[in-house]
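Service request form, structural biology core

Requester: graduate student, group of Dr. S.
Request type: structure prediction, single chain
Budget code: on file
Notes: please return the result as structure tokens.

Sequence provided:
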Amino acid sequence: MSKKRNWLKILLIGILLIWTLFPIYWMISLSIRNSAEVQSRLPLLPQSFSLEHFRKLFAEKEFGRALLNSVQVTFISLAVALAFGLAMAYVQSRRRLQIPGSNASLFWILLVRILPPIAFAIPLYFIMTRLQLIRTKIPIISAHVMINIPFIVWFMITYFKNSPEEMEDSARIDGASEWQLLLKIILPLVSPGIASVAILAFMTSWNEYLYGVIFVQSPQNYTIPLVLATLNSEQELTEYGLIAAGGVLSLIPILLFVVFAQNYLIKGLSSGAVKE
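Core staff response, request fulfilled:
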């Protein structure tokens, strides 16, 4: 019976892996085939190798500009959201720093995450239009900051509450300010949580599409999700290789960021010991 159960587990794991990884393999496979093969009956394994779809993306579809725009929007919004979110989470986790109404503010922070994104898109659109900023990247960066701050706050409050307050008391006796406590003592201790929430916030911002459609008015400010959406138009509907190449390129920055953040996550876990 035990052998049968083991084989059943292996079979189920294999099916799940194929179900999960095959779409990624097929996207990569389509991106490296030449146009003639893509338009013909497709075998399971590529019969040709070509980078023409990638060249066409950068030469004709201005994918390089979209990639730069996505990098700018994602990293700027992530930096701002982390700065405000970590500070807010730290204040909410320490009773000595809380002010009347702090508990109610947590509810309003969570409300931003619960309500549908379109509920905030309309007032934000009118604000940015009145300020004459609608044709810049500021509206979409502001929208990404708005959707990531509540997630960062609620995610990091638990990490801050679990950090040892004895170290803070010792540093405060030595004359450390609240900002020094946060930057030099607390943040290094909660670095695994920061790495985790940064990965999730990065992916949310990188793949965000709704606010891009609403706030990006100029093709020069298109991000990768918007460019990929234009590749699915009627004119480009048969360009399967082009769409697949765009999907492959959109995955690379996420994979690189995850690998980079995981290094800090491992460092944070291994250096979290506290000497007494």
